[in-house]
Please model this.
Amino acid sequence: MRPSESETDATQNTMVDACCADIQGAADDLTRLQTLLSDAAGTLLGTFNAIQAYCEDTAQHTSGATVLEPHIRRAVAALQFEDLATQLLQHTQQRLSHLEINLKKFQILPSTLEGLDSALEASPYQGGAHPVRQDGMDTGSVDLF
Amino acid sequence: MQSILAIDDSSSMRQMVTFTLKSAGYTVVEAADGQEGLEKARNQTVNLVLTDQNMPRMDGISLVKHLRQLPQYKTVPILILTTESSDAMKMQGKAAGATGWLVKPFDPAKLVEVVRKVIDRPM
Model:
């Protein structure tokens, strides 16, 4: 026996609500990840500053400056991870929000096939180009115009 | 001492840029977004501007366009330091009047080399 229209609508709405709840959960996890990253980055930066101040003081009296220089360079490059990670997280959260918007369209589908195609047409993500393409912390390119 | 205006909405990025440039002997003025950067640039003419692209209130390319409208910034080098690496974005930066496009993460020695190269280069 086929489900009634109202039963189908209810099932559909339940499914959409469940998907939206999953999306919200994922978004909450990303927010927590951002907090962890910011916390770690703050600690690392504080430590870096303290070590750097000590090294500057020590290097004035020894030849340690040349020994430390490549390590400081790598640390400065690596410490930029928070900026890249933050941008990537924000972009992902925007895409999740967009996914939620498209999913909710299923809750207002017409009860007939007429207009179904246009109702289901998902709007493409308009958040702009992906801001972070890097998949490692190798330093980036330089172009002078 | 030559001065550089460093603009980025990430405080950790501003710290790394400032540390790098101060270690190289430059004075650094910081701003957290394009609007604040524009205000600081108007109040104090610097020798070079280093700006992020993706920022709230005013992005880097918009800032470059505004700066190039100011008489005192017609020839000041403006570098964009950003995560964006697409050729299309680079061309937008060039068309806006940027002097160069650097992709994050930056190597401190390379950044200093580029700054030294452009800061005294006649445009």
